[in-house]
Amino acid sequence: MNLSSTPRYEAFRQEIRAFLRTHGHRSATAPTAQRPPAGALAWQRLLLEHGYAGRTVPREYGGYGAAPDVMEAYLITEEFTRAGAAPPLGNQGISMLVPTLLELGTEAQRREWIAPTLRGEVLWCQGYSEPGAGSDLAALQTRATEDGEDFLVNGQKIWTSTAHVADMIFCLVRTEPGAAKHAGISYLLFSMQTPGIAVRPLQTMTGHAEFNEVFFTDVRVPQQQIVGGRGEGWKVANATLKHERGSLGNAAVTTQRYQELVELMQAETVDGTRLIDLPVLRDRLMRLQGQVLAQKCHGLRLLTAAAAGEDLGLAALVVKLQGCELRHQLAGLAIDALGELGLLMHGSPHLRAQAIWQERYMFDLGLIIGGGTAQIQKNIIAERGLDMPREPRLAA
Amino acid sequence: MEFALSPDQRALQDSVRRSLERACPLDRVRAVAATEEPLDRAVWQTLCEIGVPALLVPEAHGGLGLSLLDAALVAEELGRHVAPVPFLGSAVLAPLALREAGSASQQAEWLPRLARGDCIAGVAMAERVAGARDGAGVQADAGRLNGSALFVLDAAQADVFIVADRDGGLHLVAADAPGLQRTALRSIDATRPLGALVFENVPAQALPGVTPATLARLRSAAWALLAADTLGAGWAMIDQAVAYAKERRQFGRVIGSFQAVKHLCAEMAAGLEPGRALVWYAAHAFDALPGEAELLSAHAKAHLSETGTFVARTATEVHGGMGITDLLGLHFWFKRIGFNRQVLGGPERLRQHAAQLQDFEARKETT
User: Tens of pLDDT along A263-301?
Assistant: First the structure.
């Protein structure tokens, strides 16, 4: 155990701090599920130029070309969080499609899509889930049938978070109807402006339309817009999911939320007593602090292992389950501590913090479900982490 | 930054684990539990040979001069094997007390003997750490102790005691000192018996270097190591539950293929494993970041107690009816985790302590 930075990383940390001191005032956060405004695009370009976005993407594709280094990535996140600076864009195109194209795309696909995606100019949505294919993603039914040089895509996707603003979609479709379930899928890229696409907003319990349903009717897609080969879509999708799961359960955000909760409980009173001085609420807060600390230390342990190229197996598999649950509990305590104030929503007198805790409590429940439900996570932990047997498959 | 064990630390943990696998199978634990002799001399001897009681004794006094993190790795293995040995009091708290507050002659007299395992030291500090029950408490006056101490660690075989008085002082008391009366307290955990002491004008030697921080140091160390013990005991229970679920068949399938069972196992692992890093960090802080050690240790013990308790009941449940039998012996781990939870402060008390340490009066960063 040595928690001090080596001189090299300490120098890198100072470099980030100097950058943020000089340029931090230009920081602009892109609202989620919307097209980034001009300020956020300018900030992203600046981050790309200095290697705080697209850091490990090769230069010929518009990245910074640095060697992968988990410690550097960690320091960037930590320093940006500490300074309250807007983080690099982290939309689905950047976090999922770019690494997938780097791993499995053709040279032409990389050259066409990676740079504008990194700059935030081309927005992507992910066409995976369907009404009948959620946890059982490979049961998807959207089909792409050959029609000359093209495919004709027909079917429906759901939980497509940025479909209403996206320029492009990376989409799983069934191209080989006779093939086995997992072998009949292909991974297609196409424009959301293509005729035959209808997008319907899907309003959730928060009152916002964070997701969409997308309907395809004879959508014409050139066959060469496939990533990987025909029938290899499942393999490509798993590469993408690997990148998605890696991005969830970040201890920096959880630590930040805990901090906000402490401040809330110090600032708010009931009967003139600060919430943090009420023993029962404080005990719950301390219990969560113990979990936050465990998760933070666990993250550092995983980081060290990743830097050494070591796979910790089970220890890495528990992160999504634990991280999402903890965030949900933090929001739950905030609402309980606020009592009736925790019921108020936008537009109400006495509203606290723009109803952020109420929204988090509902939105974070979605995170427990999305990206592999808690139940699927438990299967993964048990089967891959503890070597337990799979549920026997039903005879087809 | 390197948040990981060193190769030496991994080797130490492996060596303790291998020794215990040989020397401390469940049969031995069972045999010890069945007697009134709550210490397995053979197991203790094996651990003495590989230097376990010498871990925290400085090299100048014949010890290994290692860190609390090293001791935590050993504690994890002792918990994993429910080892009936006097570790926390005799090999951890007594050497630390002498190291931090003993006079040169006290150190020279006791540390080499403790390091060799030639003598066993009991530690009486429950009243000062977890609160006084049944009016217990020790008063020191002019080199004499009066009063009583409950929940004394490693009391049964102790040749000497380290005793905390009501004012935060620490004293060395010979087990055969006149006026000292020792009674065994039978606890759920037969692998680590507790004792009670009554003092009637008992001659004692004060440790002269005690400061207000000394007791805080000792309780931090104890909390971190009890958390480590629970980590090991908890993983032993998960491993047994998983192994059982992969063998036991019902409805024509191994029960581990039912999600109802599999998910319980996943929940145990997901709950317990992140605590490992917290235990490491708390123990590391004791030596490297002393300003953070008390808060981290309080949280480590409270957190591991909560997740450990969940593991203890859930692993038992996965075993079905067999889980609650004596035949299987799973209860030794269940009880060990229960012991670790209450001794030297339960989770609620520790969290209250954690809150006080952070002084939420001031608005400041706490994590």
Answer: 999 999 999 999 999 999 999 999 999 999 999 999 999
Q: Searching chain B, which residue's CA lies closest to the CA of residue A71?
A: B1
Q: Is residue A105 part of a domain?
A: no
Inter-chain CB proximity A293 and B303 less than 8 Å = yes
Domain at A140, CATH number: 2.40.110.10
For residue B151, the SS3 value is strand
What is the tens place of the pLDDT at every residue in A87-108? Answer: 999 899 998 999 999 999 999 9
Q: Rounded mean pLDDT of chain B?
A: 95
Residues A253 and A370 in one domain: yes
Residue window 245-264, chain B: list those with CB within 8 Å of chain A: 245-246, 253-254, 256-259, 262-263
Domain residues for the domain of A52 are 7-89
Q: Where are the beta strands (DSSP E) in chain A?
A: 124-127, 143-147, 150-158, 168-174, 185-191, 197-202, 211-222, 226-227, 269-270, 273-274
Number of domains chain B contains: 3
**Which site among A5, A283, A297 would you substitute to test the B interface, given the most B Cβ atoms closer than 10 Å to its Cβ?**
A297
Closest CA to A356 of A342, A370, A340, A339: A342
The pTM (predicted TM-score) of the whole model is 0.93
CB contacts of A292 in chain B (<8 Å) are: 367
Same domain, B187 and B221: no
Q: A298–B273: do the CB atoms touch at under 8 Å?
A: yes
Relative to beta strand B194-203, strand B180-185 is antiparallel
ipTM of the complex: 0.96
The two three-digit tokens of residue B70, written as one number: 């090293």
pLDDT at B366 over 50: no
- Binned at pLDDT 50, 70 and 90, residue A250 comes out as low
Number of domains in chain A: 3
For residues A331 and A256, give the distance between their C-alpha atoms in angstroms, rounded to a whole number. Answer: 12
Nearest alpha carbon to residue A187 among A199, A174, A202, A172: A172
Res. B367 pLDDT band, cuts 50 70 90: very low
Domain at B179, CATH number: 2.40.110.10
* Residues of A involved in catalysis: 244
Would residue A101 count as lying in a domain?
A: no
* Same structural domain, A256 and A208: no
Residues within 8 A of A (CB atoms), B 275-314 only: 275-278, 280-281, 284, 288-289, 296, 299-300, 302-303, 306
